[in-house]
Inverse folding.
C-alpha cells in the first residue's frame, strides 16, 4: 500500500520532490541496491508523485486525487511497468527481459498521455535485460519523449552496460535500519511463528521475507533451519530430500539465508588460523552466488547447491 513516505528512502524522495518542483527532473532514474529493500515500491511512490494532480505543500502526493487513486489501484493509464514475466509452463519467472517487452514499453512512452500530459515507465529487474533489450533501452534514453519519466530498478548495477548507467541519474538505495525493518515487518502481518525467523533473515531487506506470509513456506523454512543449524554435521540425505521437495516453492534467497546465517555467526567467533578462515569464507561465498549461477548458467538447483555445501563442509573439516 502506498503512503506519503517510504521508510528508509526519505532522502531520495526529498531529492525527487525538489527536482520536480524546480522543473529539473531528469528523464531517467536508476535505483540500485540489495534485493528486498523496497526499490520497486519507491519507484511506484515516485511515479505517484509525478502523476499526482494536487501535490501537498511539501511536494508529496495528496493520496486523494483521481490520479493517486488510480496509481494505488494499478489502473492509471499513463503508468506502465515491465519486468520479468511468469512462465506458466515451468512455474517460474523467465531468466531475462526480452527486447519485445522493451519495445512495447518504449512505444507506450511515445504516446500522448491519456489521463495527463505525463507518462511513466517503471522497468523492474533491469539487470536481467538481455543484450537486445538493453540496446533498445539505450536508444530510448538517447531519444527521450517529452513529459516522460523512466524509473529503472536494478539489483546488480554491474549487470548493466556503462552506456545505460551514464544516461541515468543513479540513486543507491541502502538496506533499512533495524528499527525501520521492525516497523515494516510488523505492518506485513506475518504469521506469529514467522516473526522471529523474519527478523533474523531480513538483514535490512524486509522484502526478502515477503514469502513468509505463506504458512506452508514458514513450516518448510523452519524445517530447513533445523536441518542446517550445524551444516558441518548435518545429514546430507535429509538435506537433499528437503531440497527435492521445496527448492521450487521456497524462494532461493530464503534457502541461502537460512543456510548461511549460522555459518556467518560461527565465522565471527573464529579464533583459528587466518588462512583457514579465508578458505571457509570463499566456500561460503559460493553459497551466496548459487541463485545467480543457477539462473545465469542454467544449473540444476539441487545438485549445484549440494556440491557447494560439500565445499563448505570440506573447508570446515580441514580447519578443525
Amino acid at each position: 500500500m502506498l503512503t506519503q513516505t517510504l521508510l528508509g528512502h526519505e532522502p531520495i524522495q526529498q531529492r525527487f520532490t525538489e527536482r520536480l518542483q524546480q522543473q529539473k527532473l531528469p528523464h531517467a532514474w536508476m535505483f540500485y541496491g540489495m534485493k528486498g529493500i523496497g526499490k520497486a515500491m519507491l519507484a511506484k511512490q515516485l511515479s505517484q508523485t509525478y502523476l499526482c494532480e494536487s501535490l501537498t505543500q511539501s511536494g508529496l502526493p495528496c493520496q486523494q486525487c483521481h490520479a493517486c487513486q488510480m496509481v494505488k489501484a494499478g489502473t492509471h493509464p499513463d503508468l506502465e511497468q515491465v519486468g520479468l514475466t511468469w512462465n506458466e509452463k515451468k512455474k517460474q519467472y523467465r531468466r531475462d527481459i526480452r527486447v519485445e517487452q522493451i519495445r512495447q514499453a518504449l512505444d507506450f512512452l511515445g504516446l500522448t498521455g491519456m489521463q495527463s500530459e505525463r507518462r511513466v515507465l517503471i522497468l523492474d529487474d533491469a539487470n536481467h535485460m538481455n543484450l537486445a533489450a538493453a540496446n533498445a533501452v539505450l536508444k530510448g534514453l538517447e531519444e527521450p519523449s517529452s513529459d516522460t519519466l523512466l524509473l529503472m530498478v536494478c539489483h546488480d548495477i554491474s549487470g548493466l552496460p556503462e552506456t545505460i548507467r551514464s544516461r541515468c541519474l543513479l540513486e543507491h538505495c541502502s538496506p533499512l535500519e533495524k528499527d525501520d525493518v521492525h516497523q515494516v515487518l510488523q505492518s506485513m502481518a506475518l504469521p506469529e511463528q514467522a516473526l522471529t525467523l523474519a527478523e533474523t533473515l531480513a538483514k535490512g531487506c524486509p522484502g526478502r521475507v515477503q514469502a513468509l506470509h505463506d504458512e506452508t513456506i514458514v513450516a518448510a523454512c523452519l524445517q530447513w533451519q533445523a536441518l542446517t543449524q550445524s551444516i558441518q554435521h548435518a545429514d546430507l540425505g535429509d538435506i537433499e530430500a528437503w531440497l527435492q521437495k521445496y527448492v521450487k516453492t521456497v524462494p532461493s534467497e530464503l534457502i541461502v539465508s537460512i543456510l548461511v546465517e549460522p555459518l556467518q555467526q560461527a565465522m565471527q567467533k573464529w579464533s583459528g588460523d587466518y588462512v583457514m578462515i579465508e578458505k571457509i569464507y570463499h566456500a561460503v561465498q559460493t553459497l551466496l552466488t548459487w541463485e545467480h549461477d543457477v539462473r545465469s548458467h542454467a544449473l540444476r538447483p539441487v545438485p549445484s547447491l549440494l556440491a557447494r555445501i560439500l565445499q563448505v563442509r570440506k573447508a570446515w573439516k580441514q580447519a578443525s
In short: The chain has two domains: 10-172, 214-319.
